[in-house]
Amino acid sequence: MCRVGGTVPLDPLWTSTQAAQLAAQRQVGALIRLGRRHRSWTLAHLGDRIGCSPATVSRLERRTRIADLALLQRAALEVGMPRHVLVTSLAPPSATATAATKVTGTLRDVEEDPMRRRTLLTATAAAGPAALLTCLDEALAATPAPTGTGLLDTRLAAARALFDTGTHRRLLSELPGLLADAHAAARSRTSLDQARLSAVYSLATAALIKLGAYDRARLTADRARTWAEVSSSPLAAAAAARELAIVLRHQDRHDAAQRLMTAATADLESTGLRTEPAAAAYAQMLCTVAYTAARGGQRANALAMTEEARRAARRLPGECPAGRLFPITPAAVDLYAVSVHWALGDAGAALDAGKNLRPALFPTAERKARLGTDMARAWWSWQRPEQTARALLDAYRASPGEVRDRPAIRAIVDELAERHPRTTGVRELRTAVAAS
């Protein structure tokens, strides 16, 4: 046995030429087979250990397209594959990869000219979400060449600002280059650069969720979690787990989302929450646990977690410092309470929870607009079309993207226009959204 960093034993199998070649070629299934055979395990034995059939293990080892990243990760770690080998085998190849190195599910071959890809990204920067999503798909399949423009932290902050203002289309156009530069930085193998890459993937997930692109969001959320684990950053891990839980929730996998959030929140709490950013992360995680429980119909748990989030937020300032990964405040927790009651089917309680909230309590356009959309959902459930339209107009004025780009909110606008066309504010709202 050799040791990595003088502490962790590493089986020589994973430093062999064969393993290195398979990892470089992104053949993670073949690596799992290599590890399984090295341990003299049958397909059935590995299947028993990871909770699936021998046939599923066989498909996992043979496929080049990743269908279930979570199962694949369990299998890889079960056969002893080191995390750095797993990450290498899962990471998209760089634009300079050889023709023999391909990634699963690519839209084009890896050897595609990097200049052509960058030109395509630039040409579609002002296009609609569909074209921009196609460009992001290509960047996820084969990482573009680094742009080398500006400091990564500065660009990540600017991308977050686009999210905070609801400028989703511009953010989509920036993400491919940002992912390219973050991957290039992560080659340093330092924890900070790996955590930055996880943060970029988490941001991409949040943007994709806004647009209702949940399959893509599942992919970016899984990558965010992988890089967070590699970085050993508790905050990056919490952010990635939260985004994945939100994706699972939208895919009607409420129990899985709840288990993930409960475990991630406990992991974060075990760090001691000694800093204000950690305390903010904990309060945010509790809010997400509460809403996830509400969406799963777990009323008692949802209300209990909401109160726990309020207690956790009491030590936080009323105004969140700029640049914080989890920009939670006591007012933001109260806004989550609106969503929790709405999800539990109690529109009256939701409206009561939000009656004292004002846009001025929230620092970003995204949160100001979220106040409007959350109250609009409650008013709509309460069968109050005029108040619904007014709340949606407030949200639109704060951030058009929060109304225009979110499928569930856009659906309310459409229903208002169809069922209450003469209600005050409905025509103005419909015209504004249609013109966007």
What does this structure look like?
With 436 residues, the protein is mainly α. Helices cover 68% and strands 1% of the residues. It contains 23 helices and 2 strands. The protein has helices at residues 17-24, 28-38, 43-50, 54-62, 69-78, 83-90, 114-123, 129-141, 152-164, 168-186, 191-210, 214-231, 234-250, 254-269, 276-295, 299-313, 330-343, 347-354, 365-381, 385-398, 400-404, 407-419, 426-435, and strands spanning 2-4, 8-10. It has a two-stranded antiparallel sheet with strand order 1-2. A hairpin with a 3-residue loop joins strand 1 and strand 2. Helix 1 packs parallel to helix 6 (83-90), helix 13 (234-250) runs parallel beside helix 15 and helix 17 runs parallel beside helix 19 (365-381). The longest helix is centred in the middle third of the chain and has 20 residues, at 191-210. The protein is globular, with a radius of gyration of 23 Å. The chain starts with a strand and ends with a helix.
